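Retro notes, item 3 of 5
We never archived the inputs for the pyridoxal-5'-phosphate complex last cycle. Fixing that now. Sequence and ligand:
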Amino acid sequence: MTAPARTDRGSEELIRAEEPVLAHNYHPLPVVVARAEGAWVEDVEGRRYLDMLAGYSALNFGHRHPALIEAAHRQLDRLTLTSRAFHNDRLAGFAERLAALTGTDMVLPMNTGAEAVESGIKVARKWAYDVKGVPADRATIVVAADNFHGRTTTIVSFSTDETARSGFGPFTPGFRIVPYNDLAALEAAVDETTAAVLIEPIQGEAGVLIPDDGYLAGVRELTRRKGCLFVADEIQSGLGRTGHTLAVQHEAVVPDVVLLGKALGGGIVPVSAVVGSREVLGVLHPGEHGSTFGGNPLAAAVGTAVVELLETGAFQRRAAELGTVLREGLATLVGKGVVGFRARGLWAGVDVDPALGSGREISERLMREGILVKDTHGSTIRLAPPLTVTAEELAGALGTLEKVLTSS
Ligand SMILES: *Cc1c(COP(=O)(O)O)cnc(C)c1O
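Structure as it came back at the time:
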């Protein structure tokens, strides 16, 4: 981290300057990041923080991973955008390698996670009409309560979070909401109109909720038996986070469609994708769906470099190994301010004793001690460090958490 600060304004001044000109759709921690490398970020005043959020998994490989930065630089010097009106020389390789990595046939490249979800919904509906034979405009998609799939009008239509929904209607019809981790409720909701079951293999925003063993395999069995698609939103859980390439691999499950985003862009550019079988993605024909930026050469070059990092399995192994350190460390904090936690790989939702403060307050105290995390609901904080974090850094962060919880 050698580059000098590019601003003559301090953190407090910059935070104040945002207030009148920036829409208030976020409530960030009061830290102004100016540069970063690996698992560490530095603020405008040069204070260093361990990034234990990693951009909600968009930074699985850390900030500015050298291989990813090199791939981006190389591509910036050659070709950045063509639109899909023309072919570009990077897209075929990206699609081939991403399909191989995820064990499927076809790739639909998009940009943001929400676009991948929207695209997954459109593909599932088209499949329902063209292949399954659902009468026109009657297709339903079954989703889980407490889901997080993004922020578009259609996606918030099937959110159960009133803050995310309220004031944004009218809502898109065609969704049925069932409790998460409840196969009987799913069985009751799926009928002949059902195009797909759309779930997160682990519910991230809900607090890193991990379903019971057998749930994902049960969803696979049920959707196959009832003749609808299983669409897994792996935008946050996928690409190494849980110790596997995909979180569904914990139950050796292969969904029909997987939605990817966040880490696919290497923390550099937004890159998302719908990956799935030819039977499903093959329903799209020219003109029926698209994106000006989807599959652009810069995104494809960075995405290819991300896939290359994951092809060795090293990051997945690291997440699994360090996940043990994380789980064992958190277990020692139960009763010392932690009332419970859920963890898989390098991903944990930690429920703090509400008497010690809200998740926000705990996050602010951790920030002052040089650890960046994000609260979810109530007194839950989420830990999701870059997969490049070291065991020592992780132990240090857990030590700081213990200090913050026991000194308050
Ligand atoms: C972040 C996220 C999305 C939305 O991704 P954006 O890039 O913010 O649109 C969708 N699904 C899940 C599970 C996510 O974590």
